[in-house]
Amino acid sequence: MAKENLLSAQSQLALDATDSLLGPNPFIGLSQQDVLDAWLQVIDQAIHQPASAVINSAGFIKDLVCVLIGRSDLQPEKGDKRFGSERFTSSRVYRRTMQAYLAAVKSLNAWLDDLDLAARNTARARFMLSLVTDALAPTNSMLGNPDALQKLLNTRGRSGLKGLRNLINDLRHNNFTPSQVDKSKFEVGGNLACTPGKVVFRNDLLEVLQYDPQTPTVHAVPLLYAPPQINKYYVLDLSPEKSLMRYLVENGFQVFAISWFNPGTAQRDLGMDDYVQATREAINAVLCITGEDRINLLGACAGGITTTVAAAHFSAIGDYFINSLTLLVTVLDMRVGEGDDTTLGLFITPESIEIARMQSAMAGVLKGSDTSRLFTWLRPNDLVWNYWVNNYLLGNDPPAFDVLFWNNDTTNLPARLHSHFLDMYTDNPLGTPGPSEIAGMPIDLGMIAADVYLLGGTTDHITPWKAMYRNVPLFGGELTYVLSNSGHVQCMVNPPGNPKSSFMVHESPPATPAEYLETAQQNAGSWWPHWLEWLGRRSGGQVKAPQQAGSDEFPPLCDAPGTYVYR
Asked: pTM for this one?
């Protein structure tokens, strides 16, 4: 039982760490100029305000004296796992080392607060400072990490040799970054993305998977899932116990999923209009296979943006076959600064947008590996130094967590599609009521008459729930807003059974997030059963489950998870 609890805690840590891995902000990124500007502003103010440095240095010396004489009460912030070893409490040397480090960090942050910087610039500078102070934490060194040093002694140096081998391997094969996952433990189509099904349609941009029914009868109206283009689709089909796709078919739904093609430079000119057309072809195939004239759509993160653009475009040109629309952690109104408390949001400027556009145009794609590396350094304690300690100082193998394997299985964006996503920041067409245009396509969210289900997360720092709340007045149909007590990935990977899960729901969301918190209904458990009930009411009556996948016009092409997922 103790081992199971440990594994559960480690799995939770992995999910927490991946809260920075999705959403629209990777389309912009963080440039060297952004970093330089943040430091230059700090240096300029420091030169003009030398008294602040003197005052805070005096405060640091006072704190340091208290540390040295054993009278300091400095403690790590709640949730800081770096100083979890009991030796940081029992050993005077390690306790003083920890407190001296905390005193230095406290003094530097106090100095930043005293500088005459705008709030946004202070936040930018604090992030840049944290990159340095996090790297210099004593726990990142062998002598400063009591558990690593003890293991080195207990193993007579073998843990150190194993750590050195891990370091050399990562220098050679992992872009100079500590490995986050033991990839040898997972296989796509084996123990991941293993819900049975067939590929029933394929074009140049996507494959459509039809999952095998698991019940004698199914709801008549099919569901099509559109994943984010910056990640592989199987975040909603991880291991069987975490698979939303499996949960749906086990509860009598006809489920189809899009698996996007991973583009290279040859696909650089593919844009939003091409992805909408490919989605339309996928929908036509699903409707033909099922014999229905209505479809439910599910979009996640960036896939939710594409799904919404497609639904708005279809409605604008008079095609009303969208029966319902579910959007998971998807921000459509791209105003920056209002409800946007993300780290990358601090660095979004017209200049950074154009730099991002230029870089992908030169490369032909926005590389998935670059996006992954960016988000790794947005959460360095969780996604860099945690594995530095585990892999190199302790000499352990990287952990085997399915969600981290999925995160490292990256995809690219074509340069033109990337540019269209960037246009949403500069023009905000989805956040502007009334008719608009994206990539030459007429769109109008107000003409989407389908019912809409929105899911946000209370601790989502990539698509903050208050920013997502700006979606509420944009649609024309009935709307339900659900708020899960979790982060970005946890919102989706949230199967029933977790006693810590809860969610709030409002079927007539009020005008503001504050009013929502006051009036929404609180519920224990996962939102999955609530959504299935909502979706079931919009999925028609029961019909006999199909005996085989596809149809005469769209025969099965191969077994799920298909071929595009391996590219």
From this structure: 0.89
